[in-house]
UniProtKB/TrEMBL annotation:
Gene3D superfamilies: 3.40.630.30. GO terms for molecular function: acyltransferase activity, transferring groups other than amino-acyl groups. Residues 14-156 form the N-acetyltransferase domain. Keywords: Acyltransferase, Transferase. It comes from Agromyces binzhouensis. InterPro entries: Acyl_CoA_acyltransferase (IPR016181), GNAT_dom (IPR000182), YpeA/RimI_acetyltransf (IPR050680). SUPFAM superfamilies: Acyl-CoA N-acyltransferases (Nat). CDD domains: NAT_SF. This is GNAT family N-acetyltransferase.
Length: 156
């Protein structure tokens, strides 16, 4: 049996409104898991919301997609330009729901996202990944992403 097709479907305003609190809570927790204090993680969340969702809706150019595996909601992909020049695009967030992991969904979503970025004039696509996320790091390396910057920390 063939794998169901992975499709990216742009979120509606109502879907974004439902997604935003959950995604930002997920981001805040990921920052804590990476070593931020609760205050730092909350500040990072607020900064992201103010920059990209000042009125609860994405600023111009930021694209939020549901990842669909067949007819099922398998996660989300958020990408958009880094700045007003639009040549450097960024994968701001990729999440595959746990029950859909280890099935190639993230890989296929990333490849579809790369195509979307190209269609919008991007010549480069960047992303951040927390150091504890070994699976994502392996996926991104396999897709040809290279380390551009490396932050390291040690608890004292």
């Amino acid at each position: 049996m063939d794998d169901p097709e992975v499709r990216l479907v742009q979120m509606t305003d109502a879907e974004v409104a439902a997604w935003l609190p959950a995604a930002m809570a997920h981001y805040e927790q990921a920052r804590r898991d990476a070593g931020d204090t609760p205050e730092q993680a909350a500040a990072g969340r607020r900064a992201s919301e103010e920059r990209f969702f000042p009125d609860g809706r994405p600023v111009e150019g930021q694209l939020l997609h549901s990842i669909r595996l067949g007819d099922e909601d398998a996660g989300w992909l958020w990408l958009g330009p880094w700045d007003e020049h639009g040549e450097l695009w960024w994968v701001w967030d990729l999440e595959v729901h746990p029950e859909f992991r280890r099935r190639g969904v993230a890989r296929r979503a990333m490849l579809a996202g790369e195509e979307i970025a190209r269609e919008h004039g991007a010549s480069r696509l960047g992303l951040n990944v927390f150091g504890y996320n070994d699976g994502a790091i392996a996926l991104y390396r396999d897709l040809g992403y290279e380390v551009a910057s490396l932050h390291m920390a040690k608890p004292l």
